[in-house]
Amino acid sequence: MDHYNLYTCPTVGCTVVKGVNKSSVVVLQPAVGVSPTISYSLGLTSSVAVTAVDKTGNESGLSNQASLPTGTDTLAPASPTNLTVK
């Protein structure tokens, strides 16, 4: 396994189609046993699916399709800790 291709559809409920809705995002395969993470901006309305691509370019079928959560991020990040001055 080399990487994942991300396919998107612009609205919730639409159907992601392999080869049609491919985004420019390529998610690299992390270390063995680690799940890849895809970040996105809150407020987007989109459905997504991924395919796996091996080192020779063979691409799998689409994963299950998922809808991105909608809404606005209202939680502040945790306060930084362990500040030191030298």
Number of helical stretches of at least 4 residues: 0
Give the end-to-end Cα distance, rounded to a whole number of Å: 45 Å
Mean pLDDT: 77
Specify the biggest β-sheet: 4 strands, antiparallel
Quaternary state, please?
A: single chain
Kindly summarize this structure in a few lines.
By secondary structure, this protein is mostly beta strands. The chain contains no helices and 4 strands. It has a domain at 1-31 and 41-56.
Give the arrangement of secondary structure elements.
Layout: E1 3-9, E2 22-28, E3 47-53, E4 66-67
Antiparallel strand pairs: 1-2, 1-3, 3-4
Structure report:
The chain has strands at residues 3-9, 22-28, 47-53, 66-67. It is mostly beta strands and 86 residues long. The protein has a domain at 1-31 and 41-56. The protein has a four-stranded antiparallel β-sheet with strand order 2-1-3-4, with no helix packed on it.
